[in-house]
Write a sequence for this structure.
């Protein structure tokens, strides 16, 4: 490695053979005056890990989103960490079961689609976003919709509990009962051996026990609409 103090770029050889964070601290020191704190680096790495594990952004979009959140001066560090964590994810996937909980969730949502319930993966950052996305995808024959948001997915990644919201197609006459939509979602999830909790209140979400393991190269249900 070139130890020129004015050099801040990281070579392909460095990327393959060095400790990324230590390397960044060395290369960034001339630019910023001091290395980033361990807490900052841990938080940055956690953010990138979540984006990769969730799988809603493309590999190219993850660095762009991270730089937008943390600032443009971090572009090279973000690129290095994204490459490192992506490789870790691919290696980790080799130890996963053949069919993961996320795979079963995709199938359950697909079945609900055939029953007239529009299902949306990672539908926005808020419930309001999710409802807007779901309603935009309703068809004339749709009875209702189900969804989870990106924050819901982040919670599932951390705590193995996914919150699923639902609603009815209010343009249908007669209007379908909201409880019927929720019950259909619960049945579909239970058919695929999920632990499901719903208290029967149409204003309450459905809670699903789910170990979030989404494969990068196969389980590519896109953000918003599967």
């Amino acid at each position: 490695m070139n130890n020129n103090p004015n050099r801040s770029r990281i070579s392909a050889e460095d990327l393959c053979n060095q400790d990324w964070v230590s390397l960044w601290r060395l290369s960034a020191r001339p630019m910023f005056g001091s290395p980033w704190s361990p807490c900052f680096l841990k938080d940055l790495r956690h953010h990138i890990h979540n984006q990769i594990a969730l799988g809603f952004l493309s590999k190219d979009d993850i660095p762009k989103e991270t730089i937008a959140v943390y600032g443009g001066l971090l572009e090279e560090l973000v690129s290095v960490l994204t490459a490192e964590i992506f490789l870790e994810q691919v290696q980790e996937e080799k130890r996963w079961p053949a069919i993961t909980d996320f795979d079963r969730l995709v199938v359950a949502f697909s079945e609900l689609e055939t029953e007239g319930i529009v299902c949306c993966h990672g539908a926005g950052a808020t419930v309001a976003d999710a409802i807007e996305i779901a309603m935009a995808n309703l068809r004339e024959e749709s009875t209702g919709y189900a969804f989870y948001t990106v924050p819901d997915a982040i919670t599932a990644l951390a705590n193995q509990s996914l919150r699923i919201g639902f609603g009815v197609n209010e343009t249908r006459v007669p209007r379908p009962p909201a409880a019927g939509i929720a019950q259909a979602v619960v049945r579909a999830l239970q058919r695929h051996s999920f632990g499901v909790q719903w208290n029967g209140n149409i204003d309450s979400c459905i809670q699903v026990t789910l170990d979030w393991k989404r494969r990068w190269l196969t389980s590519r249900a896109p953000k918003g609409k599967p």
